[in-house]
Structure formats: C-alpha cells, structure tokens
Design brief:
alpha/beta; about 325 residues; 10 strands
Length: about 325
C-alpha cells in the first residue's frame, strides 16, 4: 500500500499552479479555454469561483456524515454534464454566488465552527487551483478538518497527484464500465479507463482508509470511497463496474453501491432518453448487492428505504455562502 502524503501548507497550491486554467487542462476534456481571460470551458466555468450552497449535510456515507454532518460545499458548473444529473441546475451554472479564495477559506472555517466532520468539496475539479489555495489559507488560520474531494471520478492523474497534501479523502464516482453508456449519458467514451486511472492515483496519494472517532462514531480521515450509482436498465453494466473495481482495488478502497437515482430530467431530455424515466426496481438493486457479495466484497455501503427522493436535492439558495 502506498504511503499517503502528509497535509502541509505551502506546497499544495504551488503543485497545482503548474497545471493551470489558461489554457485550462484541469479535467480530461482538455478544452484549453483561456479562463483567466473570462472564457468559459466545457465545464461552463470562467475563472470566477461559484458556490451554490455550504451547509451541514447528513446524506453522505456514515463515516463522512456521522451525526454531526458533513460540511458540504457545492460548487457550480461541471466538466461531465451527465444527462440525468440530479444537481442539473448548478451543473449548468444556473445558480451560485461568486466568492474569492479568502471567502471560501472562511466558509470552510465556518463549517468547522458548526461542528462539521469534514470539509466536503462537491464537484470541485474545475476549481482545483482556487480550492487548493483556499484550503491552504484555511489551514493557515487553524482549519483542522479532513478535506473530502467529492468527484465524478472523471479526473486527470496529474491533478490528483498535485492535490496530494490538500485532499485527505476521495469520494469518487465510478459511473460506467461501458464506454457506449458513458458516451450516451455523459459524452465521455473515455470515462472507464480515465476514472480507473484517476482512482489508482487517489489510492497512491490518499492511502488506505483511515478513521478516528467523533462522539463515539468512526469518522473517515483518509483514503478512498468509490461510489457506483445504479441506473435504470443498466444492471449488467453495474455488475461489470463492480467487477472491474474489485478486481483492480480489492480492499484498498471502500465501496458504496447507491440506489438513489431519481428521474428529474425535463420532458425534452426524457424524450431522448426514455429509459431514464423510471427508478431502479428494488429487485434489480438486490440482485446487484447479491453480486457484490459473490465477488467477495466483505463490507460496503448500501441504501435501504426510499433513497430515491427529490427531497434529497437541497435548495441552491446560497446558504452558508452569502
């Protein structure tokens, strides 16, 4: 097992400075947008740092949310733009408040003051440089929480490597094992191999799962959690995804098998993707969990009850930012 990097102040932002945003090559799209000049990348972002919400969040995996809540910061825009995105409003850039790196550092510190178990950066990829700087500022002012990178998994290895020392925990999706499905739903046929390479880099830099204890409950302080969201009509591709992950990573990461897909797409999109207009049947989800057991996954997170609810989608009203 690779030894994780140690958190530090000073190295983090400098390492990622060498990757940069003008031309932007932070994500695998490599669109080359001159964001420092106000041009927008494929993600929709210019060099303006936009945040839609910063608040305690109780719906992450138990060692990330605990009873106190995860200090989630939802960033605006997204490099991937999945057609079924549950946070489509912010992914499309239709909400959010512009903040400076100093302001973002204060947001992190405020979440710590509220009792958050961690600082959880949701969809952070296209703001990697600014977030690394904000973490550095916040740590210089006393931030002591683990930093969680809550990502689609569509990341570049050099960026993950540059974030060593900034990020403690990766909460990464592995959406597709099927390149055709990745193209259909995310316009990213390179997603499977790109995400696997990124997760390998996450394991190298963040190390094995590590925990301490808060209020008698385990809190994750390091390592990688890989999430897979089951999609309607895609049970076999979900089995392929779990098999690919477990064969590659075994027990070096934690797994989260999610059944919270909610059909919130507009009618025009549903007309193009009618198969996404339904929830995943419970019997298919149970079959996938049985398959995970057969693979040898000894311990993984799974969901029970009415996980697929629109009420799980928070309001993008600037809470905790303005």
């Amino acid at each position: 097992m690779a030894t994780p990097q140690t958190n530090g102040i000073g190295r983090d932002a400098r390492a990622i400075e060498g990757i940069g945003t003008s031309p932007c090559n932070l994500c695998p799209r490599l669109c080359g947008a001159m964001r420092c000049e106000g041009r927008r990348g494929v993600c929709g972002a210019s060099n303006e740092l936009l945040v839609a919400r910063a608040a305690l969040h109780f719906w992450e995996e138990p060692p990330l949310s605990g009873e106190a809540g995860s200090g989630t910061v939802f960033f605006v825009n997204c490099p991937l733009h999945c057609v079924y995105c549950q946070n489509a409003e912010i992914a499309a850039g239709d909400a959010g408040i512009a903040v400076s790196e100093e302001h973002l550092a204060e947001v992190f510190l405020d979440l710590e003051a509220q009792g958050a178990l961690n600082v959880n950066c949701v969809t952070p990829t296209h703001y990697s440089l600014q977030i690394a700087r904000a973490v550095q500022i916040a740590r210089g002012r006393g931030l002591g929480l683990p930093v969680v990178w809550n990502t689609s998994g569509y990341e570049r290895v050099p960026v993950i490597e540059a974030l060593a020392g900034t990020v403690d925990v990766y909460l990464a999706d592995f959406k597709y094992a099927d390149a055709r499905l990745a193209q259909r739903y995310s316009h990213a046929p390179d997603y499977p191999q790109t995400a696997i390479a990124a997760i390998e880099a996450m394991v190298r830099t963040a190390g094995e799962p590590r925990f301490d204890e808060v209020d008698g409950l385990p809190r994750m302080t390091g390592g990688v959690v890989v999430r897979h969201l089951v999609l309607p009509g895609a049970l076999e591709q979900s089995k392929d995804a779990l098999r690919m992950l477990f064969e590659r990573f075994g027990d070096d990461v934690l797994y989260s098998i999610m059944n919270q897909y909610t059909p919130v797409m507009p009618e025009a999109s549903l007309a193009r993707f009618p198969e996404l207009g339904v929830r995943v049947p419970d019997v298919e989800y149970e079959e996938l969990l049985d398959f995970a057991d057969e693979l040898g996954m000894q311990d993984y997170f799974w969901q029970e009850g009415p996980a697929a609810e629109e009420s799980f989608i928070p309001a993008w009203d600037g809470t905790g930012v303005a």
